[in-house]
Write a structure and sequence with these properties.
684 residues; alpha/beta; Rossmann fold; 4 domains; 26 helices; 43% helix; 14% strand; elongated
């Protein structure tokens, strides 16, 4: 097609077919009866050749118009099996599409004209077939006929459209599709994927995760709700890439097959433990004081455990929050031998025997005499240790008052140590009968592992959020260590490598996980190899979760790549449309007029004129309404510094289930029944 004309008209009758018919007909006559055209045979053959060439060129133009109009009604299907998914060590495959330009804005605007609806709306036969399906669905004999009308097979001219909704013409404005990719170097700038419920975010995540696994990256997948298809895909791709030994599945909903993880057992600074535990508490109004007290008390317990050579976990923290006496006793008995004389135990026993319950203050009544004696002995001899003094001050609080102060923390802690979940997030390192592995982020990154994390948020959001935030905080700590020392810190010299890891972190429904821990992961982790891909429905979800619009803007500013599927919130759509340029589109104004003649002697009574005027209007490349009308599985992507691409992802072909272990397949089926989160929007 010649695009040099000021107005491109593709939604019109394919008049080129008349030229094709005339050219081919004349060429046939020139070959078979050149004398009828007053030509010699030699001249006739040459003329026929030129006419066939001309007809072929015009036929190509006609086919272009017809194919363009066909795509306006229904795009050709695009699907890939997992084996066909392209994997590159330089580029990340996103789907098929095209770079959006001014001509696409022009073509999309042209579809709004009422004059071209006949080229966009479905045919009358298609509409009749859908009406008959509804009318005859329960009519004996006829329902068999209408079932044929609903089959998606090549011989059915009125087969139904795939249930993807939206406007297919948004993508149909360009027929020259190509594989859309982005440079892997751009991924350290992090990627944000936005899309409303059931438009294909999880399926898009599968495409990216599959490539990361095949490429050999360290892959960490956070799945708050528990998508069975996503878990299956991670497992299948790990086996397909020969990396089953590096795969770990952590799922709060299925603890029997899950690996274990101590959410507070790894840290760079001891204060991180208290922060991870108390970040889930409210910091608004009067709750801030209770949160700070809970942090101080939790930090004191954590420091004591670490100084005694123990690895903190949720069980121990909860135990000592509710009853600090055992911890104080154990710590004093470990600390006093280093500062007290050899006979300190006899002196403590003597003091314990001399304690009279009636002489004790009200806050100490009912307490163990041994503990009281230890505290008195240290005081009277002026032995000082900051940890021991902190434990003593907490011990001397009135218990009822103390329970009120930490009351906001206890409900969360009780959830974290209840039933089988406690064994997952407070693992017993000495239990040799429990064969479930215990994961550690440092070891995962060193081994280039693959971790699927199902947080079962639909069952208990509080537990899912607490564990997820602890994991993020742990990853931030590991990121800082990698940035300073690399992944080989503490390893023997002969085993050290200078290779910077590539850690692909995918956070589905990340608005349910985001907290103060996630922000430094975006701000500072790019230098340590982390590349975050976050998926959520609307940006308002993130703002509501954080509770601070400025802080939410800080998070948004750390995503250099934006991919937006269909959204239903104007503010979210404007996150993309406000970042792109405007362009000029042409419009045709039809002008007609009549002028009467004022000259009575003239033979002309009136004059008329009809003309088309071309005017230029400036408008944005795409509007929020365009994004809100996207079909499922399609998106606009702002890549590599502002290039706007229109992409559609391949529809998945059900394959690879044979690569999933039997127990994982059973769990996947159970997840489908429980959560109903896997929407097969691509299936007819």
């Amino acid at each position: 097609m010649n695009n040099n004309y000021p107005v491109e008209a593709l939604l019109r009758p394919p008049i080129e077919l008349w030229s094709v018919l005339c050219a081919y007909g004349t060429a046939i006559i020139a070959v078979m009866a050149p004398w009828s055209l007053m030509m010699t045979p030699a001249v006739g053959y040459g003329t026929a050749a030129m006419l066939f060439l001309f007809g072929s060129i015009r036929g190509k133009d006609a086919f272009y118009v017809l194919r363009y109009q066909r795509n306006m009604r229904k795009l050709p299907e695009y699907s890939l099996t997992p084996d066909q998914l392209p994997v590159s060590y330089r580029r990340l495959f996103l789907g098929r599409g095209f770079l959006w330009q001014q001509k696409h804005t022009q073509r999309l605007r042209d579809t709004l004209s009422p004059k071209v609806r006949c080229y966009i709306d479905q045919s009358r036969w298609y509409k009749l077939a859908r009406q008959l399906e509804n009318r005859w669905e329960h009519v004996p004999l006829l329902n068999g006929f209408v079932s044929l009308l609903g089959k998606n097979v090549w011989w059915n001219p009125v087969r139904p459209l795939p249930p993807v909704g939206g406007k297919p013409q948004i993508h149909a404005v360009e027929m020259q599709e190509q594989n859309v990719t982005m440079d892997l170097g751009e991924r350290v700038g992090h990627t944000l994927v936005l899309g409303t419920t059931r438009v294909g975010k999880s399926r898009f995540a599968e495409i990216l995760i599959s490539q990361d696994i095949a490429r050999g990256d360290t892959v960490i997948v956070f799945d708050p709700k528990g998508d069975a298809a996503l878990m299956k895909r991670v497992i299948a791709e790990a086996r397909r890439a020969g990396r089953s030994d590096e795969l770990y599945v952590f799922h709060l909903g299925f603890p029997d097959i899950s690996c274990r993880y101590n959410a507070i057992g790894n840290f760079s600074r001891i204060t991180e433990i208290a922060s991870r535990l108390t970040n889930a508490l409210s910091s608004e109004g009067n709750s801030a004081a209770f949160r700070e007290f809970a942090w101080r008390f939790t930090n004191m317990i954590s420091v004591a455990l670490v100084k005694m050579g123990k690895r903190p976990d949720y069980r121990q923290i909860t135990r000592y929050i509710t009853n600090i006496e055992p911890l104080l006793t154990e710590y004093y008995r470990q600390w006093l031998p280093s500062v007290a004389p050899e006979d300190w135990e006899k002196q403590v026993q003597t003091m314990a025997g001399n304690i009279n319950e009636r002489d004790l203050p009200f806050s100490q009544k009912g307490r163990s005499h041994e503990v009281l004696a230890l505290v008195r002995y240290a005081k009277e001899n002026e032995f000082y240790d900051p940890v021991a003094d902190g434990l003593r001050s907490a011990f001397e609080y009135d218990k009822t008052y103390f329970d009120k102060i930490v009351g906001s923390l206890l409900p969360l802690m009780e959830k974290l140590i209840s039933e089988k979940i406690a064994a997952l997030i407070s693992p017993d390192y000495t239990d040799i009968d429990d064969l479930r592995p215990i994961i550690d982020w440092r070891q995962i990154i060193r081994r280039k592992g693959i971790v699927y994390i199902g947080l079962d948020a639909l069952s208990d959001m509080a537990v899912a959020s607490a564990v997820g935030n602890s994991m993020f905080a742990d990853l931030v700590s590991v990121s800082g260590e990698i940035y300073k020392h690399g992944t080989d810190h503490g390893m023997p010299e002969e085993e050290k490598t200078q290779e910077m890891p590539t850690i692909s972190l995918h956070a589905d429904e990340f608005n349910e996980l985001i907290g103060d821990e996630f922000i430094p992961l975006l701000n500072k982790s790019g230098g340590s190899g982390f590349q975050v891909t976050a998926y959520t429905q609307t940006w308002s979800d993130v703002e509501a979760r954080i509770g601070d619009k400025a802080k939410a803007g800080q998070v948004a500013g750390n995503f250099n790549t934006l991919i937006m599927m269909r959204v239903k919130e104007l503010a979210t759509a404007e996150m993309l449309t406000n970042q792109i340029d405007s362009c000029e589109v042409t419009t045709i104004m039809e002008v007609s007029g009549v002028n009467d003649s004022a000259d009575p002697s003239s033979s002309v009574d009136f004059t008329s004129k009809n003309e088309d005027r071309i005017s230029v209007t400036e408008m944005p490349y795409i509007s929020p309404a365009t994004i809100m009308a996207l079909p499922k599985g399609q998106a606009f992507a702002l890549l590599e510094g502002g290039n706007l691409w229109k992409i559609r992802m391949p529809m998945p072909v059900e394959a690879g289930d044979d690569l999933i272990p039997k127990n994982m397949q059973e769990i996947s089926d159970e997840m489908k029944r429980r959560y109903l989160s896997n929407d097969h929007w691509w299936a007819d």
